[in-house]
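Subject: Re: docking follow-up (flavin-adenine dinucleotide)

Dear J.,

Thanks for your patience while I sorted out the input files. As discussed at Tuesday's group meeting, I've set up the holo structure prediction with flavin-adenine dinucleotide included as the bound ligand rather than trying to dock it afterwards. The sequence and the ligand SMILES I used are pasted below, so you can double-check that they match what you have on your end before we go further.
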Amino acid sequence: MSTYSAPLRDITFTLEHLAGLPELTTWEQFSHADSDMLYGALDEAGRFVGEVIAPTNVIGDQTGSKLNDDGTVTTPAGFKEAYARFVESGWGTLPFPSAFGGQDLPWVVGIAVVEMLKSANMAWSLCPMLTHSAIDALIHHGSPEQQAIYLEKLVTGEWTGTMLLTEPEAGSDVGALRAKATPDGDGTWRITGSKIFITWGEHDVAENIIHLVLARTPDAPPGTRGISLFIVPKFLVNADGSLGERNDIKTVSLEHKIGIHGSPTCVMSMGDDGEGAVGYLIGEENRGMAYMFTMMNNARLAVGVEGLSISERAYQQALEFARVRRQGRAIGAPKTESSLIIEHPDIRRMLLTMKANIEAMRGLIYLTAASIDRSRHHPDEAQRVRYEELLALLTPVAKAWPTDRGVEMTSLGIQIHGGMGYVEETGAAQHWRDSRIAPIYEGTNGIQAIDLVLRKLSLRKGDVARELFAEMASLDADLETAGEGFVSMRESLASGLAALETATEWLLSCEDPNDALAGATPYLELFGTVAGGWLLAKGAVAASRALEENGDPFLRAKLTTAHFYCTQLLPQAVGLVPSVTAGAGTLFNVDLEQLT
Ligand SMILES: Cc1cc2nc3c(=O)[nH]c(=O)nc-3n(C[C@H](O)[C@H](O)[C@H](O)COP(=O)(O)OP(=O)(O)OC[C@H]3O[C@@H](n4cnc5c(N)ncnc54)[C@H](O)[C@@H]3O)c2cc1C
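The structure tokens for the complex came back this morning:
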């Protein structure tokens, strides 16, 4: 079984050179922090996560959460204690406003902590992740009174949060949901209905759970225009802040899943015992979907982090295995003994593929997270608008591209282990099983691709995307200055970018939306692959500048990894163009009868 060691140098390198953290700390909003202080804090967080959270990962997978006869849920051994220490440590509070118990730190620093938590135990990390989504919704849309009652407890983690959207007939199509909200005459509402797949809907790690529930009010218009958002606490909160009556919202069963066994995924019912669960309307009636959208960027990004985190964990384990397992004889090795498998080219190829993809994912995710900070706090208003647009464009890519990679990278982790990866004893299989959910929830990756091609590419008639591509192209001047060693990187980056531009212009000029939809998923893959190459190349330029001052092997590895990605993985992006631009013809020419 592997341990987890937070990759702090990689994290700080990405924060420094790809996310531009030093610039953020010059702004008024973050003037109480400087980069060194923040890196020191992340060091502490890494130690905490490795010592307290990571040891709960395997036991959580093996035993899972259990539903008891009285409707309570018992989480795996160690989860509750780890959560108590997490609350005590304050690591969940970093990016939230100090007015509600937070630390007013950049979102991108909070994301670095999230990365570590998710590597340590993805199932456990979903509890704070859903709480963060609930906090976001309340900060943006809660009334001052609601904020006063709930926010501080959620920010500190004393209470946890959930999101109740999905119903059996309403998955990707949230607008089809049927849960009902009826006014109670005293300003509160009564909520009835069932929800499925609710992450951490019931548990034993905190004393109260604040459910955010989507439901329809009487006479609401059909579809997404008729959905309202409600606070439905597990325990009602008295005027003095103490816990009151148990609300009529229950977990009726737990889902049996491929992975993330420690995370209780609940089927929930409201109103079984009477008129309904007591709910409090957030904002205005019928604005629920609009409110969800404001917090979805952050939630989608947090799921994107899972692809990165689980790949990192699988990589650490695969590397450890490859350094001790002996098989065969590498070319040129002494005849007397077998070689470590890490000496074989195919194992090195897999390890480097994992490492390069992990660095590309980290670059993309941290850049997107820093765009949240820039869109909120950049001193120049025009820049705030620009980063808001960039954030909108990057978010579906930052959710889907890393989570698809996560499944592939954890599969490579198993492959490196050979048969010992396929059996459960080593734990390599857990990472792959855990990774599989991330392309599905928080909007499937198919839905993210549709969002990218139909809504995001057309922002300012395509100019938001074109401006990003121009920024990518401008790196070429730095690569040229960096010297001869960067020639092949420049060539493959130029080809990848040309492919991305061709595919983008084709999509923007599509007359039949079905043609664009048919190419959406390969386009998102093309986008992510090229953006990853750009970010690794940018990191390589920074590393080569720093290398002139010292011969640090860490920096040299940055160059090798970027070179590997740009010359061996990035060229695959060019091959995606025909899939993007094929149109829907072939897909609809298929006789559905012939698919049986
Ligand atoms: C472990 C787990 C935890 C979850 N946690 C939560 C939670 O906390 N709260 C919550 O509310 N929900 C949660 N969900 C629900 C999750 O968000 C949904 O499963 C997801 O949105 C997909 O919905 P669905 O399962 O109904 O699939 P469907 O919507 O039925 O999709 C099936 C397939 O059809 C595709 N598809 C659907 N519509 C279209 C379209 N218009 N165009 C093209 N393709 C389409 C999808 O991409 C997918 O491939 C969770 C799910 C799981 C499994």
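A couple of observations from a first look. The longest helix spans residues 381-417. The first strand starts at residue 66 and ends at 67.

Let me know if you'd like me to rerun anything.

Best regards,
T.
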